[in-house]
Amino acid sequence: MSELSRRDARLSRLAALAWPLDPLLGAFALPNTAAILDIGAGEGQLLERLRQRGHSGLLISLDPVPRPGQIAGHAENLPFPSAQFNAALLIRVLLHVTDPARALAEAWRVLKVGGQLMVAVQGSQHLASFWALAEPAAERLGAEEVITRLLTDWPFQRTDIVLPVLLTSQDVQGLAESYGLSLPVLGRDLPDQLQLVVFNLKKSLPSFVE
């Protein structure tokens, strides 16, 4: 299990749901028969969760280091013909690719007209109280701001998913370790929140970025 998956498991326990899978699937509202491509799928949990919910359409996971059942590939050069999918997902991955603008263009290319491109990143208030302890003097440009700038010329709709959580001292220590940080023992609970920002772009014109 990756460090990200272990952190998600901790946050899922705190939020009493599968984070970020359940909130994401609630925000998508995709037809049950939609052909979906998950780009940078990691361990493939998102589409597996969707399959467990009875999704009957084509589900393809792509990753540079594919697991069994996944396709090998990079976001900047998708190994698919144009206009193949009803939805393309870039979930917490766009800032980790070499060329984010190229990755967006490729995801757009493989969408059918009427399809949806969904980009999700952690918002600026995600674990804000924790980060105030960990990096009190830092002025960080968060993923939310970077993606908003990147999508300046794109016709997107934004959805914010915010969930309150209460971090115990043990949770704070566990999160710090997962980020490679060392914090003194807090000795009290810490109110905080989870935030995921979802950018939804609908392909109404086939040549928007071409």
Automatic annotation (TrEMBL):
Residue span, Methyltransferase type domain: 37-118
Gene Ontology molecular function: S-adenosylmethionine-dependent methyltransferase activity
Pfam families for this protein: Methyltransf_11 (PF08241)
One Gene Ontology biological process: methylation
Assigned keywords, A-Z: Methyltransferase, Transferase
InterPro entries according to UniProt: Methyltransf_11 (IPR013216), SAM-dependent_MTases_sf (IPR029063)
Protein name: Methyltransferase domain-containing protein
Organism, scientific name: Deinococcus detaillensis
